[in-house]
Write a structure and sequence with these properties.
globular; 10-stranded parallel beta sheet; 695 residues; single chain
């Protein structure tokens, strides 16, 4: 649960921080991985053809059937192709727009633009009339538009930090042109579309947080956007699995699809492009391609299975068509591009998944843990009978199930008793911010609109997110959790979303008025990352945890309740953590009001996992345990070897617990044997410790 309960949402900057290396599911044919695709037998080559191939290799010209050195591609997301069939790829990790020919020949890059400066983190690129180039420099919260010669025409947005004024952006993820050269931008965490004239002048905006037509769930999280030849605009929603259709003036027309992994459904994902009057949707976290008609009817699904090589997808994001009719797809987690025909047939690929390099990682030092119990192993999964049985057999001690309907009855007491009888503890994961995210909306907003969270410069509160500043709202949260803990008999809880969504949140009237009374300064006149203003809002979350801890001790005095806190996915470096989500975990750890800090990096970057765990371990008192969440989900540690390396990095960094995320991928990837092997290996290491260089 990357901070979103049941699914790995990389909510706002949480998501972007983990985005560089990856997250997905894999499909197996029985027990045989389908990653290995047999190649056709090569024909015998004549001496002259061998000479031609050697010359081609020297010139770095790819030749069919001959394996040349593959280019390095780092976190490819958006893709576009101009009239000359030059492929433009937004590489978030490399902070550049890479260019390739249709046969994979590198043609240069756009890394710095005169009059703008270096790209900070581009998520998408689009090609407009006259081969005009638009780039969403997502991490700089700006849009820049270049001519066909890559000269800057104009840039839109103040940049450097999120803004919600017209013409400013909050991590704009995708963008597209219409035939008139007008530009449409998915202003992702402002939950809106912004439309601009060909000269960059603002025209209009539409969209807001909500669950109705023209609205977007959670805190927005808009993904890709595309325009058909009649001018209709199509917008994909990352979390909700929906595609919404509008006129070019923003009038709502229809909604297609819904959240899921079945036929005609879309899971968490980004991809969307109008090609030949069809909607091609790379379904990122399902590692497949779903194709709809322009009125939302399912046309086809390509599901080659998740894999790290050959024709398989591993979190596809962008798709674009060449003049030849060939399709180019960005294969995010494999750091490569795929070339397909219109039937989905695999034609070629370039890039390097880097799996062999990942497996060579070794910890620079072993961080010493405080003397205590052996390292605990856990899974983030459902609590059905099969999962409980598998957990017991694998040596897993805790299951973290997501409580989807946060402020409704859990009704898990019988399951908890059954699991505990088999030696498996249940620690529900409770998303503390949102409510009403289920099938039936919560009535809390209608009863208590003053409890809800406000965003900076908003005209109304967010209808599905509970704020922190109102003491009654904090007590409502705490009382509900205590009641459900008592009723279910669980021995621990995990507090997810125990934070803000960013420094532009928490502008509730109660918080604004309270700050003014305390300091004599109107916070609306301060930068949103003003240190005093951030700390003031963060203290409300601390007050909630204090109240929850006190009420648990009072209501259930005979039972120890473990409180685990799920950290925001941004860099947990002690000097940065407050600026991301105003989550004052160092204070909570120092006060002794929490028992465990959860560090989640859903990535293939093993050194990132190690470094994040180590940073939190070194910043927290010894009495606070560290739990490292690592993911086989989402194309990250999706083989037994990669998972073992993630476990090694977690423990080397000082983790007291390692949790495997998440249940559906554990089953689909057949990872239970790998988890059992990891537990056994750790128990053997604990029984016969080696002398290692210790920090």
């Amino acid at each position: 649960a990357s901070n979103s309960g049941p699914t790995p949402r990389r909510a706002e900057s949480d998501f972007l921080s983990a985005i560089k290396f990856g997250v997905g599911k894999a499909i197996h044919d029985g027990n045989k991985p389908t990653d290995q695709v047999p190649l056709p037998r090569k024909k015998r080559s004549s001496l002259s053809s061998v000479f031609v191939r050697l010359v081609a290799l020297m010139l770095l010209i790819p030749v069919p059937g001959f394996a040349a050195e593959q280019p390095l591609i780092d976190a490819p997301f958006g893709v576009a192709i101009n009239s000359k069939d030059v492929i433009f790829v937004a590489e978030l990790g490399a902070k550049r727009i890479a260019k390739f020919s249709l046969d994979g020949q590198p043609l240069g890059e756009i890394k710095e633009v005169e009059g703008y400066g270096p790209l900070m983190g581009p998520f998408a690129v689009a090609i407009g009339p006259n081969d005009r180039i638009a780039i969403a420099d997502t991490r700089n919260h700006r849009i820049l538009v270049l001519d066909a010669n890559e000269k800057l025409l104009f840039a839109i947005g103040e940049g450097k930090k999120r803004g919600n004024a017209l013409g400013d952006f909050a991590e704009p993820h995708f963008l597209t042109f219409n035939d008139k050269g007008e530009l449409f931008v998915s202003d992702t965490f402002n939950a809106r579309i912004q439309k601009f004239a060909p000269d960059g002048k603002f025209i209009k905006t539409w969209g807001k947080v909500g669950s109705g037509p023209g609205e977007y769930v959670h805190n927005g999280y808009l993904a890709n956007i595309s325009v058909d030849n009649k001018g209709y605009v199509y917008v994909r929603e990352f979390d909700g699995g929906k595609i919404q259709k509008y006129t070019e003036d923003g009038e709502y027309v229809a909604t297609f699809s819904r959240r899921g992994g079945g036929d005609g459904e879309l899971d968490e994902g980004y991809g969307l492009a109008v090609i030949d009057d069809l909607l091609y949707c790379p379904d990122t976290f399902e590692s497949r391609m779903v194709i709809f008609t322009l009125d939302g009817k399912l046309k086809d699904t390509w599901a080659p299975g998740e894999g790290n090589s050959g024709s398989h997808f591993n979190n596809p994001v962008g798709i674009a068509e060449a003049s030849t009719g060939e399709l180019i797809v960005t294969d995010w987690k494999n750091n490569r591009l795929l070339k397909l025909d219109k039937t989905g047939k695999f034609l070629a690929t370039w890039g390097r998944p880097m799996v062999e390099e990942i497996l060579k990682w070794k910890p620079p030092q072993i961080v010493k843990r405080a003397p205590r119990d052996p390292v605990r192993f856990s899974v983030y999964a459902g609590i059905d009978d099969v999962t409980i049985k598998e957990a017991k057999e694998a040596g897993v001690g805790v299951i973290y199930p997501s409580m989807e309907y946060q402020y409704r009855d859990w009704n898990i007491d019988q399951t908890v008793a059954k699991a505990m009888s088999q030696g498996v503890k249940i620690h529900p994961s409770v998303a503390c911010l949102p409510f009403g995210q289920g099938i039936t909306n919560s009535d809390v907003y209608e009863k208590h609109p003053d409890w809800c969270l406000w965003k900076k410069d908003a005209t109304e509160p967010m209808k599905t997110i509970l704020g922190w500043s109102n003491p009654e709202a904090r007590s409502f949260r705490a009382d509900h959790i205590v009641a459900q803990v008592k009723a279910s008999g669980v021995t621990g809880i995990m507090l997810d979303y125990i934070r803000y969504l960013g420094t532009d949140y928490g502008y509730d009237p109660a918080a604004v008025d309270g700050f003014f009374k305390k300091y004599g300064v109107d916070p609306l006149t301060l930068p949103q990352d003003d240190q005093r203003w951030m700390q003031y809002r963060a203290d409300f979350v601390t007050q909630f945890i204090v109240e929850l801890r006190r009420k648990l001790a009072t209501e259930i005095p005979d039972r120890y309740i473990e409180i685990s806190v799920y950290l925001a996915g941004d860099d947990p470096a002690p000097d940065l953590y407050l600026k991301h989500a105003m989550q004052d975990w160092k204070t909570w750890a120092r006060m002794g009001i929490i028992d465990e800090l959860i560090v989640a990096w859903y990535t293939r970057d093993i050194d990132q996992i190690y470094t994040a765990v180590r940073r939190v371990r070194e910043a927290a008192p010894d009495r606070v345990k560290i739990n490292s969440f690592i993911a086989c989900y989402g194309g990250n540690l999706n083989t037994p070897e990669l998972l073992a390396k993630g476990i090694e990095a977690s423990i080397a960094g000082g983790a007291d617990e390692v949790t495997i995320y998440r249940g559906d991928s554990i089953s689909e990837l057949d990872m239970w044997p790998a988890i059992k092997a990891g537990v056994s290996a750790q128990r053997a290491a604990e029984a016969h410790p080696k002398k290692e260089p210790v920090q």
